Amino acid sequence: MTLSMITYVIVLSVYTISKHNGFSTYAWDLGIFNQGFWTTVNLDRVFYYTCELHLVPSGSFFGIHFSPILYTLVPFYYLFQGAESLLVAQSILIALSAIPVYKIARTWFDEGYSGLIASLYLLNPALHGVNCYDFHVQAFLPLILGYLLYFTIKKNWGGILLSANLAMAVQEQVLFIVLAFTGYLLVEHLIVNRKERPPIRAMLSGVALVLISVVAWRSLSVIAISYYNPVIPDHLRAGQHFAVLGVDAPLKIPLHLVRNPGSIIRALTFEWYNKVVYIMGLLAPVIFLVFQSPLYLIPTIPWFVISLLSNYPPYYRIGFQYSAYVNPFIYASMVAGFGRVSQRSTGLGLRRNMRILTVALVASSLALSPLSPLTRGFYMSPAYQKPVQTERTGILQGMVSMIPDDAAVLTQDNLFPHLSNRENAYVMVPSTFKDVATWKNAIGWITSLETEYVLIDMETDPHD
Q1: Alpha carbon of 283 to those of 44, 237, 333: distances in Å?
Q2: CA-to-CA distance for 278 and 272, rounded, in angstroms?
Q3: What's the pLDDT score for residue 433?
Q4: Which end of the chain is more exposed for a tag (fewer CB within 10 A), N or C?
Q5: What is the mean pLDDT of residues 69-96?
Q6: Residue 378 has what pLDDT?
Q7: Is residue 277 within 8 Å of residue 283, measured between CB atoms?
Q8: CB of 379 within 8 A of CB of 393?
Q9: Are 122 and 2 in contact (CB under 8 A)?
Q10: Which of 50-59, 237-246, 397-406, 419-428 has the weakest average pLDDT?
Q11: Which stretches within 230-381 are classed as H helix?
Q12: Most distant CA pair in the chain: distance in Å?
């Protein structure tokens, strides 16, 4: 397993850095995070970036999302400053998530089989999709949520509380996942495993502490976001992501579904083919084993409701960071289901089942992973853009290197990450067809800038 993790880090780091060098990474979101870390380390700013100053006047990423977990990477970034460092750090974080998978597998299997299961986990195409699309804070979740599940299996309430709080430090949306997780705890220990449940007082105390943490994190995130962005523009709210359903905020979904049940069909059938591919991509390789242990999927319910009722494609496509909300639970469910099936199998049956699982996971990786040569030409997300090195990209690299480090520069989406190691780097804002007023405001702000350099290459930016 250790060799698999090292191989994963090397392969994914080289691959994503190659994409970056070929100008297939973007301001949204590698450039945002690189500039945010650079200003934090060098200017004592709070993850300040310039891409959305027209939406967040303070310039702090915390004006959009409250993600204090980012501070854990500040020492690493201080030593190795650059977008490449974030890509490597992301690969390391995701590779480390194989450790809790191994520990969970050890509940049912010996060391050899557990190591193989953890190694196969690193072939997961949804995991590659998170890793191959720029840098996102959700990269912390597979590791943290994996340990949350491991501590749950071991009935380690201190570990559960620590993992739940670390997960909520990733981003405020994780609160809904943790709330659903407490529901799983109650169902698992009060109903399903009544004979093996821990003392009722200890379990309820643990659940209460988790719920108190949810309330505390909710309050803290509201305070922090309001502090850095007192007047949040409509463009930053998630309402437009549920226009087909007919609500302007995710929290309004439950009541809306009760009052307008017919809207469920309209929302589910919106781009239904992409939603089917999304579900199959997440579940197909392990679908029968997942149904052997479905309770682990309870914490995924909030995200599946949000994503499948949405009209925002990144929510329901593999290749974006959002798969990290559910992937740890899906894989843990698979491991538990496989363990229960194996308990009913002989030695030959176990080896046969392991071969079937191996073939299924390898096949899914070949069919859907951004790393696979078979996915060339896929357009599900920027994760599927392959590394490209041409004479033109070489010329662009030379032009980028000619711009002084302290110069103010205006550039485009896919060039911004290469120039974001500075305070005065700005990006041309992509057109927002559904919010023309916000786009005009952004363009007006950008045209008022007087940067020393402007660097644009229309051929290498597919968004223009």
Answers
A1: 44, 30, 10
A2: 10
A3: 57
A4: C
A5: 97
A6: 86
A7: no
A8: no
A9: no
A10: 237-246
A11: 253-259, 262-268, 272-283, 287-290, 301-308, 327-343, 347-368
A12: 73
